[in-house]
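We read letters as residues; the integers encode the fold. Take this protein.
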Amino acid sequence: MRGVFEFTGFTGLALALHVAAFQNLPQGSESAGSGGESLVTVTAVSGSLSELVATWDQPPEVAEVHPAAMPQPSVDLVDTSAMSMDATEPPVTEPPATVAPRRLAPVMPLRDTALRPDATQSAARPPAPQVDVPTKIRPQARPASQPVKPNPSVSQTPRAASTAAGNGAAAERGMRGPAETASLSKSARQSLIAEWGGKIRNRIDRAKPRGGGRGSVVVVLTVDRNGVLQRVGIATSSGQAAMDQRAVDAVRSAARFPEAPAALTDASYTFRLPIRFD
């Protein structure tokens, strides 16, 4: 408000000074001649015009505008104590009331009537039939049979042992041969074959030719029990065809070998014999 009063006072003072200045000016005269075109005629204004000027010079009235009070929003107060209590403490629920279990009546054991028959029923049962077990009949001992005595009329003189002679003895020896062979052991049989093979080799050595180089040949030959040559071949060659052929020729030249021992009963036997040429 102080600024408004100061402004109004200074405005009025300025207006008064203007009016006083206009009143002190000399009265104007009408211009004449050539200088009158450059002069301005000034006359005093009337009172209505002065009031109009004063009205124009006055500043507009400024009305003090008070700002309207802003409406305060209505805030509903909330009981925060209750909220804090609700947020921190969980609701307490009362535990359900426990009901005491009813005491069950004791169960009486069932009487096993099926397995325990009544005394009256056992008494009413007929007794088990008695079975007569036949007694074992012991056989009567027979009297021991007495040996029958030989008739004294039959002669009991022993016969003298007789020995076969002549051709009968040879036949008896021939019949005894297979029995002796059956009882021959394997080692004894191999020994007899080796002995017979040695005799065959000696026969071949006497029949082989002399000269013609030095070497060794292993021949394989099959001989029957009578000493007859059935086949001959080369088991291990000397590396010289001529020497191998000489060995085969020596075996064939010595044919009709010694007979097999009597204990060897096979039809034929095979031998592998080395032949050396010096």
Summary: The helical segments are 2-23, 47-57, 80-88, 119-124, 167-182, 186-207, 241-253.
